[in-house]
Amino acid sequence: MKCLILAAGQGSRLRSRAESKPLLPLLGVPLVERAVRTAMAAGADRFVVVTGHAAEQVEAFLGGLAARLGVPIDTVRNPDWAQTENGRSILAAEGLLEEPFLLLMADHLFEPELARDLLQAPLPEDGLCLAVDGDRGNPLVDAGDVTRVRRDGDRITAIGKGLEPFDGYDTGIFHCTPALFDALRAAGGQGDTSLSAAVQWLAAQGRARAVDVSGRFWCDVDDEAALHRAEEALLRRLRGKTGDGPVSRWLNRPLSIRLTRRLADTPVTPNQISLFSFLLSVAAAALFLVPWWWTLALGGILAQAASVIDGCDGEIARLRFQGSDYGGWFDAVLDRYADAFLLAGLTGHAWQQGGGAWALAAGFLAVTGSFMVSYTADKYDGLMRERGGARFRMGRDVRVFLIFLGALLDQVLPVLMLIAGIMNLETVRRLIVCRGDSGGRQAAKGRPAAVAGPVRHRS
Question: pLDDT of 102-117, one tens digit each?
Fold first, then answer.
């Protein structure tokens, strides 16, 4: 499906941030790139972008983006962008759009699910569908500036800024037929070159349908306040990851998100963060082997710091669209090595302190239990997602936090025994929970999912 993106405006209210609003970086990614990548995730595979202000810069960037993403991006200029409203930009692309298309604004953020909901709705013949947010209390919306919509069922009856009464907000995301171009010309003939005027013209003929997307994420980045709201919203969406255990949810994730906010505008990559976290764990393990309390405590602090930083790789990947199967697998492999080094270091320290056979046994069972919890995580998490609802999770975040506490309090052998007990009991619990699930029997016939595929969980 083709996607038309309007990127002709100047964005004067954000001029101090960037000469071209479509190229304004938001947490490391220019606004127009976010629009393209999100539309791709929703199913778009060909793009037309209308440029105007700073056209050369925007077009040069889009040429590089097309090469990086491997998708065709055509550009067309609106020479009258400064004198006319956004409807003129749409008409500039008419010759490149002969079938139904997705229409977006370069400065609107949205989640792919919102566009999918829109594209799955029936499209009126010779008309359009508009994604309408019925949540009038949406905190991301500037109620004084947003375009308002009035509906009768799923039919749009009126649209415009300052509209009263109204029951929804225009998200700026449309699924259109080429009939939109005739509507734009008709509205322009009446002296209004805006997209809203064309939608009103189609609505008067019953050819404009509203698709309710209440509860879906979207945000219009128009000024400094909106930019701040958008940043906070994107970072807030990183919380509550389904694979997070209790330590990750309440301690690691709030800290890692703060760090991620600073890293987002740097060139650091998710794989580099994964590697740095692993090296911190190796340093912690080496410190465990030095028979002094302060090196043991420092090692515990480094281990917990590595656990916090280990959350940043996935956060950066999601914020900057840099996730990959290899990246998830690479992170999981390094986590397993880090676990082995940390527990081996603690075992060595306990042995040096006279733990003897108990230290070796506890260390062996801790490593074994930790690896089995990781091995069973993919299957268990998948089953819990199918069942829905909240679930109990005990994984890597708890394990590393216990290592941190044991090192800080100089209680290495008791903590090794505790980790050994918790991790092995958790493995047994998962086996019991998953017993009888037909998917478990099927997985047993082939290669384990946790080994075969990418792993982004923190087990």
Answer: 999 999 999 999 999 9
